[in-house]
From TrEMBL:
Membrane topology: Multi-pass membrane protein
Keyword Transport among record annotations: yes
UniProt-recorded name of the protein: Anion exchange protein
Protein source organism: Melanocharis versteri
Keywords: Cell membrane, Ion transport, Membrane, Transmembrane, Transmembrane helix, Transport
Encoding gene (name): Slc4a4_1
Region of interest called Disordered, as start-end residue ranges on this chain: 282-330
Cited Pfam families: Band_3_cyto, HCO3_cotransp
Amino acid sequence: RWIKFEEKVEDGGERWSAPHVPALPLHSLFQLRTCLQKGMMLLDLDASSFKEIIDKALSEQPEEAELQPALRERLANLLLLQPQHQPTKSLLQLLAELGLSPCRGRKPGCPTRHPPAASSPGRTHAGRSLAHGFCCFLPFFAGKAKGRSEPRTQLSETPLKEQLRNRFKKKVPPGAEAAHVAVGEVEFLEKPFTAFIRLRRGVSLGSLAEVSLPSRFLFILLGPPKAKAYHEVGRAMATLLTDELFQRVAWQAEHREDLMAGIEAFLDELIVLPPGKWDPSARIPPPSCLPSPRRRTTADPLDQQPHGNGAMTAAGDRASPGHPRSGEELERTGRLFGGLLRDIRRKAPWYGSDFSDALHPQCLSAVLYIYLATVTNAITFGGMLGDATANMQGVLESFLGTAFAGFIFCLFSGQPLTILSSTGPVLVFERLLFSFSQDHSLDYLEFRLWIGLWVAFFGVVLVATEASHLVRYFTRFTEEGFCALISLIFIYDSLKKMLSLADAFPINWQYRLDNVTSYSCTCNLSRLFNPILTCLTTLHCPPLPSVYHPDGTTTNLPPCHLAGLSRTQCLDQGGHLLGTSCQYVPDVTLISFLLFGGTFLFCAALKRFRSSRYFPVGVRKLVSDFAVILAILASCTVDVFLGLETPKLLVPSELKPTNPARGWIVFPFGANPWWVCLVSAVPAVLVTILIFMDQQITAVILNRREYKLQKGAGFHLDLLCVSLLMVVTSVTGLPWYVSATVISLAHMESLRKESATSAPGEHPEFLGIREQRLTGLAVFTLMGVSVFMAPVLKHIPMPVLYGVFLHMGVTALNSIQLMDRVRLLLMPAKHQPDLAYLRHVPLRRVHLFTVVQLLCLALLWVLKSTVAAIIFPVMV
């Protein structure tokens, strides 16, 4: 049988072989061409049943090839017998049959399944004679029927219940039709009988096919015994009918000559393998990518490059390197806000489907995955902002700002799959601005408010003048450099956070068993009890520490007897700990690293589980979609089971500013001189460039052609939303937000759509991204209510979330071509993969391009690590 590749019944007769590329003898194609030239051909036959088709085929033979009535009757009876299909059995069915059939092997005394092929008269002989049956395009192989001693029933005109329940139909693409090829040896014929039939419309032919499908094409070749010739001709016909170009010819052919021309075109593309250079019994595995039918018609097949979805793209159709995007999203209209209005008109018709398209289980896994990543990111940047600004902006402000800005952006933006977050350059600017305000006695939040208002104004001006059209000049070099840098920052920060655990939870590297008696930790309350004599005359003398007994009684301890105090009691009494083992926490750092690495490896393994060979496709897809959530749950379970006090996620539990000295509204006047509102325009220009480059480079990466987005981009609308959000976040003293490259890429990867059905041997086709707004809205809604979810979130270890960060960084890094070219630097030329660009570009130029890109990436990294990090988007 064929769906796209050939499958054969193995010699044992119990299972189908692995799908493989059919290897045909060249002579069989010539014999097929002769059969179609001389045989009967019925195009657009009007029939509704297989019996009617056979009757018309036998009655409309030309006079020179007409069969005698007796032979026609025997031939009709033979063709109308029920084919012997090879059933697909489950493991339980095979085990049941194994238990019921003790003579499964080739033991002496056991009856053979296929007795010797001795001729026997009548009906039984006819049943053995039909050797093969195929079904093409949605092909089926009707299994060998040689030597079957059991009587054969007549073909049913209605589908059997086995056909209707056959799970193999899930592999069939919607709207497919069956094509049947019946070839075999018939001893009562003196010359071959050949018929090629195309029905006027697809009809169900009862129980002829393995599953119930409409049929349109039939090919019959019966004749006297002639070794394997008929079998190979049938394979050649089935292979032709599965070829997409020949299918078009077969559908549109009006005369025999049209069909012959289709075979000639097939032969023109044929590639012959020399017989002594390969094993004909070897099965060629299906390739990972195939040329599209349109590209097969081009003159130069080498001038093709594999595209992201497995199709081939000709060099002439590729956009030029300097202008990779020439869509109407980036064309200038020449009118104020012309690009913005075009974005709104483009996105408005899709707004309703942006919510209905999210009704899929995959979106639930995406929400949980991105929510945990966003929470971790908000806590990380919130903590760093708190350190940089004396808690004028802290973790709570980061939570509320992320929730508000992200929700509004997902509701109104042009590309709602984008995730907003604080970024490194913005953090550097906040640190510099706070230091400048402290040094010049300026109010930081008021100064920041005016900068934010100016940035919003400049952003609106950029939208009005359609400055986003400059995006078309961003090349692969720029995109890959920016994406690689952000990915490396994620990887570096996750490792840096893990290494910092060794300071908070030190490992006792010099531990010696003999020195165990020297380890001690005591509570020192000397500072509290030294002035006890003077405190006797006051009412504010601190109480003596107490020990609580199980029976509910308490005993006050004298200052010299403090061994019964716990660490918490000691610190509550105002004391401090003394001793070499006070800061030692056993195994926390090592267990944290195990959780960190385990989460990363578990995420990667479950993501790759989709392409594994184990379990049904539905189970693999479900596990892959929920990979990150399953990894987090597994790691949290291990953490609970071990019972160690690993560092946990800290979520604010109260809605009040981190710094009590500030409020929720920042007033524009009062604390700073009046001229600050004008001077603020100078640093605002720098921030505007930073925001514009950061936002638009991320938008370019997210709207690449290989993602197959159907609803269009919204570069102008996205920039307008970010600019207006600058006003709100500046007035409320919340952090500034811009598109986060790595989290947005992770969001899109978690919403990948693949074909629900794929032929055996064919990789699932990438269909695009599930474009909708609901996942982003759900993520940022959960961010807003995270303050009330603190009792649950506090059980998630931080090393687990750092592992998720590492997974996102590595995944984003592996998605760019730069990493493939870096691997080429380390490979000898003879071991390098057959990449398309290596066929057209000299290897030394590829290496030169890669080295220059790596040097620029290193320069950006050095720049990012200094005070000049604020200008790094400009350097990109």
